[in-house]
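REQUEST ID: PR-0412
SUBMITTED BY: lab tech R.K.
PRIORITY: routine
TASK: structure prediction, single protein chain
INPUT:
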Amino acid sequence: MDDGFRRAVRINPGARGPASSRTEIRDLVLSVIVLSVAMTMIYGRRMLLVDDRTLSFLLWIPICMALVTVSFVLHELGHRHMARRYGAWAEYRMFPMGLVLTLVISYFGILFAAPGAVMISGRIDDRQYGKVSAAGPAVNLVLAAVFMAVFHMTSGVVQLVAYLFASLNTYLALFNLLPIPPLDGSKIMRWSVPALFLMLVCAGCLLVLLSL
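STATUS: complete
OUTPUT:
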């Protein structure tokens, strides 16, 4: 998710370059940890690997951390990359309340994947901003399609991991494409309703394929 309010934040030296600031790295790491714990609480209860719940929880932590690192981080970096292409300052920032809500809501078996957003500062029109907003969900759609193909071509543990990657990326795409502020879908809709509709159709098709 990118921030719909284009908040003014302190610009770090070299922030427009390929490197991340220490603040961005810290916020990404904390967000990954919180999301990983939240997903472990959800998946660990649904799909126990062993009879011992404590051991099962510990086994799910590295699995969920890999899921989040690939799916969530690449989503945010997609926003950041597109914004920087338009010459804007862009970095990820965590939301403390978002982190708390992610943990609390996960206790009830629901993944609330909004621990932070990419902050953008610069002159960007609605068309450019719509493309910046679309970049994150587009990354998830591509990843979901790739892992969906792997899922149908493999079996065993590899198939299970591919299914988890495909389902998480499909969920992240659908969640962020909802046309509700401050989610990505609301900014994409201001730029192009057909583009938002097409992305929702793609996410819906992936969701259907997951259930087959």
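NOTES: Helices lie at 22-46, 53-85, 96-106, 126-153, 156-177, 184-191, 193-211.
REVIEWED BY: pending
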